[in-house]
Amino acid sequence: MRNKTRGSIQIIISSIFFGALPLLTQIGYEGGANVVSILAIRFSIAAVLIWFYLWLTKVKIKVDLKQLFILAVVAIFGYGVMVFSYFLSLQYIPSSLAAMILFTYPVIVTYLSAILLNSPITKVKVIALVLVTIGVLLMSWGEVDFHPFGIFLAFIAALFYAIYIVYLGSSYTFQLEPRVLTAFIILFSAIFFMILGVIRGDLIFAISGFAWLAIIIMAIFSTIFAIMIFYSGVQKIGPALAAIISAVEPITVMILGVMILEEKVRFIQLLGSLLILSGVIYVQKCSSKPKIDWKARI
């Protein structure tokens, strides 16, 4: 299997795991948890599990102070801000609308990559972005709950997720083994949300059994596996293509809604899904891995 194909498959798999987050988060809310509690517990469980795994498998951890500093900054001000904003937006607007706004980030990644990494905006990327963007819009067609603050939070999530992806794909941390990078991102995120929870007085542990189960599943599949597989894919195909291909995530949200919540799928949503898949397949078939200008690191 070619490296590009393997990377594309990894991004799709990670997107499927990430796509379960809205449903699992809703279960957590219904079980008595709040945003900070879900994130603090999720990342703490994930941190314990992945560091135990690294110790058990004797993975060599070679990280210098510069890489450690970059990882801390990216985890807190990149991934941390993104996931907090996104989870909080789900309290104000429907998950499908939040996903639509979040998935403006491939456009942001494409432009940031062009500006900061000298990655060209090719015809293939433009066509794929148009297909994916229209597809996401169609999947969210008909949503009427346009809460201004919820929309603002979702846009903040999109912006910081784009910065997070581009930074990881271009910085000194690009050289790290995916398991090691994932372990540090999760560890710093856990510390950040635990401290935030203590300061705000928002930590709640008296939640339902279903909420605990949802958070544990979130920690394993939608955190450890999702982040690790995604970063491995970014290493193979670059941040811009990874962002476009990860647009399959809203499709996962729709499928889980049908299977578990018995939601009805409209024709326009199926059409949107088809456009997203078309964009993903097109960019995967027609693109090659971008050559990153390492002198243009952030």
How is this structure best described in words?
The C terminus is likely disordered. The protein has one domain. The protein is mostly helical. Helix content is 76%, strand content 0%. Pfam families: EamA. It comes from Anoxybacter fermentans. It is a multi-pass membrane protein. It is found in: Membrane.
Question: What does this entry show, briefly?
Answer:
The protein has one domain. Helix content is 76%, strand content 0%.
Radius of gyration: 18 Å
Strand content: under 5%
Write the element-wise H/E pattern from the N-terminal end onward.
HHHHHHHHHHHHH
Which percent range fits the helix content? over 70%
Distance between the termini: 32 Å
The total domain count is 1
Q: Report the uncertain regions.
A: 289-298
Quick one: overall form? globular
User: What's the total helix number?
Assistant: 13
Counted beta strands = 0
The computed structural class is mainly alpha
Q: Summarize the main sheet.
A: none
Oligomer: single chain
Summed over residues and divided by their number, the pLDDT gives a mean of 82
Family: Belongs to the EamA transporter family.
Membrane topology: Multi-pass membrane protein
Main location: membrane
Organism: Anoxybacter fermentans
SSE arrangement:
Blueprint: H1 3-19, H2 21-30, H3 35-56, H4 65-89, H5 95-102, H6 105-116, H7 123-139, H8 148-170, H9 178-200, H10 209-237, H11 239-245, H12 249-260, H13 267-286
Helix pairs in contact: 1-10, 1-12, 2-10, 3-9, 3-10, 4-8, 4-9, 5-8, 5-12, 6-8, 6-11, 7-13, 9-10, 10-11
